[in-house]
Structure formats: structure tokens, C-alpha cells
Design goal:
about 450 residues, alpha/beta, Fumarate Reductase Iron-sulfur Protein, Chain B, domain 2, FAD/NAD(P)-binding domain, 3 domains, five-stranded parallel sheet, 16 helices, about 35% helix
């Protein structure tokens, strides 16, 4: 568990301390460590770790390849299933997926370090350079459009390019990568890895990215459908939820993802404004990332407040432990009631909550926290107005078993779809499977036209 340098009663962080705080959260394994760790795997038949991975990476195979010295082959095994295996090795909650079900975990008390081994293999191949590990199939003559250059969109683009199609990706922001670039804690994606991975992915060829393209503004779904043979929507969830409480419009009250993005784009992390008394509202990994990074920037007091109990938090136990180990105070069973202050927020008032007849309800008690910065991390919603032509369910895009939306030839995946989970690895799988489905559709359509 990493311990960051944090502000204490007797010392403040300087620029060097802050820069050090954003170094790699998990230092990579060296070659000797990787071989020893790979030797712990017992190569289970019908391995539970593989079944727990959304992208179905053949984990026993890639670990055996590391152990036998075949790092190139190990990386190719990983990347064939998950082209963003480098990012997922850094940010995937392996503690609740593959490593949680590792047989060695239950026999020896600690799982094989699957994520770190995955990073070791993929980083080796990326650092080695040379030709892209996968060749493109014969060109199909089809051109596909992708909305959003996040994990789902990039995964779709890469698999579609592998299958012989040309792809144009339309992205609103100046850089590709989505949440990998803009929405994860800096210490999880250190050394500009997100962009290195994008460049590696694009090296297959046949993929171009157009930036500054905003769906519903200078990009229209109808136009894409008329121009391209298929369209994939990987737009994510872009509208931050509000709290609807008094004082929410005060200066100093903001969105946690915007705070995280400001940190990610800043060349000098010490230039990013942070409060002395920071309150983060939410119970997911974004809330943890915001809270811990506030500490990393030098906030004296950081309190994470969640309306339910710790068992209901979507943040993993490992993430929660990281926060508490670095001075973040966790307050459960509390819901924001109001914020107050003259110009900037100064105080946050919370209602104590409890469960009555199965429903979350105020207990009648309340408490206040000093706060000169409040960060909301209560999730995002789909901008449904720009997807009015599509069938929506539960506020997200409805897709069938093949990731096709209610419009023929239009596919979707990632956080924006009804079954979407807030995991990079799941978004990668969605994009991959949607590309395979679109390829089958296009080839079937072409075959039918020639018969």
C-alpha cells in the first residue's frame, strides 16, 4: 500500500513532493520478480481467473509464457483479447476480478499478481517497438465511424481495423483515451501512458481520429449513418449529476471528474488549486481518486462522505484502504443538505441517514463540516437529447445481444449502454465484440448483394 507525502500540522507540501506523489502507484516488476511471481501460478484447468476477466484473457497461458521467457508471445496473448491490456493492468480492479478468484489466493493467502504480470508483458512489447503485433485482414472497402475515442471506441476501432475495415474516430476532446486520459488518478496512469497506448493501438493502421467533434453540435448521427457503412457509439456518460441542494452554485463546489481532469492536463501538478478543507461526496472509485489526489496536492483535511454504509460503496476495499492509509476521513450514512459561504463555500451540512423499512431516509440528525472545496462524485448521466433517435432504457442506450442499437447498423458499447459497467476492461470488451458483430453484418450484407 503506497503512502503519499501529505501535509501535516508542521509541514506543507512543496512542488517536488507533489510531483513525487504522482509517480507510479505500483512500481513495475523487474524480470526476476516477474519470473518468480509467474512461478506461483498453478495453471488451472477452466481457470476461474480467466472466467472472471470481462475480456477473457487466457491468463494461465500468458503467465506460462512469461515463466518460459516468451514475453513477446505473452503480450500478444493479452492484447489479442484486450488491446488496452496495458491500461487495464494499471487501473483494472483486479482485486475483485481475476485475483479475487485466484486459486492460489485461497491456498496461500495471496493471489498471483496477475495485473502486475500483465503490465510486465505488455510494457515490454510496447517499449521494444517495431511493427504492430497484429496484421490487418485484406481490406474490405468498408468505412466505419466511431463516436468517442475512449476505451470502447478505441477497442472497436482497433478490432475493426484488424478485420480489414477503415475507421474514422470522432472525439470531442484534444486527446484520445477518454477516461484513461482524463478521468483516472494521475498516479494510476503515470508517465503519459494513456497516450503511449493510443499511439501503439493506432499503429495497426487504417484508423484516423478527428478531434473537436461534438455529437449534436458539429457531428450528427444521421449524417454519419448516411456516409459510413456502420457506426459505433462509445460516447460514455458526459452529464454530471447534480445534488439539488442549497448553495450548490457557490464557488468551490465542483465536479470531481473536472478536478481530476485538471490534474491530468496540468504539466505542473502543484499549480492545480486545492482547498485546505476538502469534502468529497460519493462512494465510487472516482470519489476515492478525487479524495486521495486532493491529499497528494496538499489539502490539510479531506473527508469523503457517502449516504449509505461502507458495504454499499462501489469503490473497492483496496481503494478505500488506500484513501484511509493516506489520511482521508470516511463518513458514511450522511447525505448533503446544504452548502453555505459568502462567495466561496465555507461549510457543508449533512443529514444523518438510516434504513427504515428498506428505504434510505434521514434520521433527523445533522452535522456540519468546514469546507473550502466540495467535489461531487455521484455519477454521470447520458445526454439523452442527442440520442433521441435511439431506444433508451433506464437512461442509457438499449442494445441487443450483438451490441446493435434500435437503428440498423448503429452499435454502442461502454458506459453509455444499458448493460454498461463502469470498468475500462468491460468497455474494451464491448468495443471488441461490437466490431466483430459489425464485421459479420457487413460481410453478410455484401455476400447477399452478390448472390
Amino acid at each position: 500500500m503506497k503512502h503519499f507525502k501529505i501535509t501535516t500540522e508542521h509541514s506543507r507540501l512543496n512542488a517536488r513532493d507533489i510531483a513525487d506523489n504522482f509517480d507510479d502507484l505500483h512500481p513495475p516488476l523487474d524480470s526476476a520478480q516477474a519470473v518468480v511471481e509467474a512461478g506461483r501460478c498453478i495453471y488451472c484447468y477452466d481457470a476461474p481467473c480467466m472466467n472472471a476477466c470481462p475480456t477473457r484473457i487466457d491468463i494461465p497461458k500468458f503467465i506460462h509464457q512469461i515463466r518460459s521467457g516468451n514475453l513477446d508471445g505473452s503480450a500478444q496473448t493479452i492484447l489479442l483479447a484486450n488491446i488496452m491490456g496495458g491500461a487495464c493492468a494499471r487501473a483494472c480492479p483486479t482485486e475483485i476480478l481475476c485475483e479475487e478468484v485466484c486459486v492460489v489466493h485461497h491456498t496461500e493467502g495471496a493471489p498471483v499478481k496477475i495485473g502486475e504480470l500483465q503490465r510486465h508483458a505488455v510494457d515490454h512489447l510496447m517499449a521494444k517497438g517495431g511493427s504492430h503485433p497484429f496484421a490487418r485482414a485484406p481490406l474490405s472497402g468498408c468505412k466505419l465511424a466511431v463516436i468517442g475515442a475512449g476505451p470502447a471506441g478505441l477497442s472497436f476501432a482497433h478490432r475493426a481495423a484488424m478485420l480489414g475495415h477503415d475507421v474514422v474516430v470522432f472525439e470531442a476532446k484534444p486527446k484520445a483515451g477518454g477516461l484513461n486520459e482524463y478521468g483516472l488518478a494521475g498516479y494510476k496512469m503515470a508517465n503519459d501512458f494513456a497516450q503511449a497506448e493510443v499511439e501503439f493501438l493506432l499503429a495497426i493502421g487504417g484508423i484516423s481520429i478527428e478531434h473537436g467533434k461534438v455529437l449534436g453540435d458539429n457531428l450528427l448521427l444521421d449524417d454519419l449513418r448516411g456516409t459510413y457503412d456502420a457506426v459505433f457509439i462509445g460516447a460514455g456518460l458526459t452529464t454530471a449529476r447534480g445534488l439539488d441542494v442549497n448553495g450548490e452554485d457557490l464557488a468551490g463546489v465542483g465536479d470531481a471528474l473536472e478536478f481530476i481532469e485538471n490534474i491530468r492536463v496540468a504539466e505542473d501538478k502543484s499549480s492545480v488549486p486545492v482547498g485546505d478543507d476538502v469534502v468529497v461526496i460519493g462512494g465510487g472509485n472516482t470519489a476515492i481518486d478525487a479524495a486521495v489526489q486532493a491529499k497528494c496536492l496538499g489539502a490539510r483535511n479531506v473527508t469523503l462522505v457517502y449516504r449509505r454504509g461502507p458495504d454499499a460503496m462501489t469503490a473497492t476495499q483496496w481503494e478505500r484502504d488506500l484513501a484511509t492509509a493516506n489520511g482521508v476521513v470516511m463518513r458514511n450514512w450522511a447525505s448533503p443538505e446544504a452548502f453555505s459561504g459568502r462567495a466561496n463555500v465555507e461549510r457543508a451540512v449533512f443529514s444523518a441517514m438510516r434504513i427504515d423499512d428498506g428505504k434510505l431516509t434521514p434520521s433527523g440528525d445533522s452535522f456540519a463540516l468546514s469546507a473550502d472545496m466540495v467535489l461531487k462524485a455521484i455519477g454521470q448521466t447520458l445526454n439523452s437529447a442527442i440520442f433521441s433517435a435511439l431506444k433508451l432504457e433506464g437512461g442509457k442506450i438499449a442494445v441487443d445481444a450483438h451490441y446493435q442499437t434500435s437503428l440498423p447498423g448503429v452499435y454502442a458499447g461502454g458506459d453509455c449502454i444499458k448493460s454498461g459497467e463502469d470498468l475500462t476492461v468491460q468497455a474494451v470488451e464491448d468495443g471488441k465484440q461490437a466490431a466483430i458483430a459489425a464485421d459479420i453484418m457487413l460481410r453478410t450484407k455484401r455476400k447477399g448483394a452478390t448472390e
